[in-house]
Amino acid sequence: MTEGKQLRSIRGTRDLLPGETETWDVVEGVVREIMALYQYREIRTPIFEETQLFARGIGEYTDIVKKEMYTFEDQGGRSLTLRPEGTAPVVRAYLEHKLAAQGTMEKLYYLGPMFRQEAPQKGRARQFHQFGAEVIGTDVPEADAEIILLFLAVLDALGLESWSLHIGSLGCQNCRPAYREELVAFVKGVEDLLCEDCRGRIETNPLRILDCKREGCRLATAKAPSQLDYLDEACREHFETVKRLLADRSVPFTVDPRMVRGLDYYERTTFEVLNPDLGAQDALCGGGRYDGLAEMIGGEERVPGVGFAAGLERILLALEAGGESLEFEPLCEVALVHVGDEARRHLFALCDVLRRAGVASTMDLTERSVKAQMREANRREALLALIVGDKELKEGTVTLKNLVDGEEETVPLEKVVPAVLNRLEALEEAAVEEEPEEWTGEDEGPDLDPGEAA
Ligand SMILES: [Zn+2]
Ligand SMILES: [Zn+2]
């Protein structure tokens, strides 16, 4: 045995503790519910992939690929990377399993951890969690609009009302080169004012300069040409239709002429949904169209697609900032309380019987006093206490105490399960009558009536 310091979780990663995991479950449950309403089906891809998938898909000159990927060599000398995003793997799986052969279009969603080696700060971790959706196999603007409406429906179902939608268009392979040329000419004219990173981007990734957060670069590029002025006929019409479809659903949005996303695969529609309460890391969701991605990662033909990825941590922070209560305790229906070792052994079996009967039950597995056990039952907000001491052992009974009103009764052992079920049912009925509605994230479908989407 070697002695050493206590080991800790890696910087930028976090343990989700009991109390938080229940909240995550609720939010993930809402996501799954809305995905089902919109008829998206779940796909689960591996946590790691060939490095090439991301280098080619996201783009070799992007920050993600250049600086942020967790890339390692396995024992066989293959270069592998922990997935920094979900879209390239989903499109890879779509091509690999020929999902297109089963229908012309596939609507998929995913949910899980992603990995990027960024400087950790509030709302930005190195292992973070995203859910996302993709419509693969069609390039109609309705798909772009549906993806946006889908995400807004999730926010609506979660009760998150504070958001703003920003949309743009990056053009396509036909109209982007002309714009890129104009942009390069422009940034060369202000090269001296740009930061070192941006000067390096002029030849490799000039669009990304528009996205630089540094004050100097923002000022220098304030008058840079916009892709929106260089869209060809088809791209302009596509963009106009997406905007009209959103307006038809009364979804408010802002057109951002400088919208750039950090991934090279986007073309045409791009969008972000921001939350004003989050500070610097204010994007809840980003997405767009990626009609060229399938070919970039080795697909034989062009497969159009559009999707979004949303940050679970960000959404939870935004809900919290918006004053939503996010604390959930798991329900505890019965606390079994024993007096002495013999009673504990006796109750052990009964506890399992209750659980098998569908009753959430807890019992103390230490040798604590009755008082301590009752305190624990109250802390867990147990509804009933089932108490067994010498007297009950001798008589073959249990004492059933209603912890809501304090009433006690003696129940013969063989009638314990039906007695418990009866009491719980009565308590539940009473609770339904008087309890005000609480936020549970459940049973609230999306409500996007015209005029309510804001
Ligand atoms: Zn175009
Ligand atoms: Zn810069």
Describe this structure in words.
The chain has helices spanning 20-37, 51-58, 63-68, 87-96, 141-158, 176-189, 196-204, 215-220, 233-248, 293-296, 312-321, 341-356, 370-379, 390-395, 416-434, and strands spanning 41-42, 48-50, 71-73, 79-82, 106-115, 127-136, 164-169, 254-255, 267-274, 283-289, 305-311, 334-338, 361-363, 384-388, 397-402, 408-412. It has two domains: 20-175 and 231-321, Bira Bifunctional Protein, Domain 2 (BirA Bifunctional Protein, domain 2), CATH 3.30.930; 334-431, Anticodon-binding domain (Rossmann fold), CATH 3.40.50.800. The longest helix has 19 residues, at 416-434. The strands form three sheets. It has an eight-stranded mixed sheet with strand order 1-5-6-11-10-9-7-8, sandwiched between helices. By secondary structure, the protein is an alpha+beta fold. Bound molecules: zinc ion (ZN) (2 copies).
Query: Helical residue percent?
Result: 25-40%
- The count of helical stretches stands at 15
**CATH fold field value of the largest domain:** BirA Bifunctional Protein, domain 2
Ligands in the model, by name, code or SMILES, are:
zinc ion
